[in-house]
Specification:
Blueprint lengths: L3 H24 L10 E7 L6 E7 L11 E6 L2 H17 L7 E6 L5 H9 L18 H19 L2 E11 L1 H12 L6 E5 L5 H16 L6 E7 L4 H18 L5 E7 L8 H13 L3
Helix pairs in contact: 2-8, 3-5, 5-6, 6-7
């Protein structure tokens, strides 16, 4: 009988969630899952015809701390916020990175796919390599929104280490990250891009980088850039290799960069691994 006691205790503990779930089902109730230490704010842009949903994830102990924290601005937060928040939480718990704040920028409507194409692309794609995107070409306006509206608001409402800002993006979001690191280097010190759509508009971003190189010897940023091994070879992997090869030959002063191919993964499936590896590279504990 003594040998059965641990079994019954274990069974009882495992059964509790099942019993609770059954009670909700029987009573017609559905408990919502919420993420601890997160907030959601409606943010109406003064200069853009867009109300964004800003999703904030704060580290454990934030409210009692007098410290300032690095901040990660997360693009495509509609799909990536939960993933990013949990990966960050695990990495902090595992003492892989320092404590950080996440600021996710999402749209919260059915048009988010088109709205991201407007905000993340600096130009329309005349080649239409991935079809027609009628709203494309609004990245400069989105960049102004970040610089003049969202970043000042975040800085004034949260305990932010202003020298430790990062921006993170996938695909078209990665294109925006590459554009920002060249056109607005002062805004962020750290950049993470995965599967960046560098071929957009016949590799227009290459021309922007070339113009930058003619008048700048330095690019004082820390960059992590990844691509999935199984991503589109001609449209994603090849331009990615070419772009970073050019960046490397520039020998920019102050540039710290790491590039990586995520083995066995494609455009979307490489994203969690790229995010994890990139965050460790950008914010890893010494």
């Amino acid at each position: 009988m003594k040998n059965l006691i641990p079994f019954f205790l274990c069974f009882s503990m495992l059964s509790l969630p099942l019993i609770a779930a059954q009670n909700y089902k029987n009573e017609g109730q559905h408990a919502e899952v919420s993420l601890e230490n997160t907030q959601e704010i409606l943010f109406k842009s003064k200069n853009l015809d867009q109300t964004y949903i800003i999703q904030i994830a704060l580290p454990q102990g934030y409210s009692k701390s007098c410290a300032s924290f690095p901040v990660i601005f997360l693009l495509d937060s509609d799909k990536s916020f939960g993933m990013a928040r949990d990966i960050i939480d695990w990495l902090i718990w595992g003492q892989k990175i320092e404590k950080v704040i996440i600021v996710g920028i999402s749209y919260g409507d059915e048009d988010w796919w088109q709205n991201r194409s407007r905000d993340y692309t600096p130009w329309k794609d005349r080649t239409k390599i991935w079809g027609d995107w009628p709203l494309a070409g609004g990245a400069d306006n989105f960049l102004k929104f970040l610089e003049n509206e969202l970043i000042p608001w975040v800085d004034s409402n949260y305990k932010i280490e202003k020298s430790e800002r990062a921006i993170v993006g996938l695909s078209l979001g990665g294109l925006f990250v590459s554009y920002t690191m060249i056109k607005a280097t002062h805004l962020f010190g750290k950049y993470l891009m995965s599967g960046a759509a560098l071929i957009w508009d016949a590799k227009h971003i290459f021309k922007i980088e070339e113009e930058y190189s003619k008048s700048h010897k330095a690019l004082p940023i820390r960059l992590y850039s990844a691509v999935g091994e199984l991503d589109e070879k001609d449209n994603v992997i090849k331009p990615w290799r070419e772009f970073h090869s050019i960046i490397e030959t520039r020998n920019y002063q102050g540039l710290e960069a790491k590039t990586e191919i995520i083995l066995g993964e494609g455009h979307i499936s490489s994203w969690p691994a790229a995010f994890t590896k990139g965050i460790i590279y950008l914010f890893g504990r010494n």
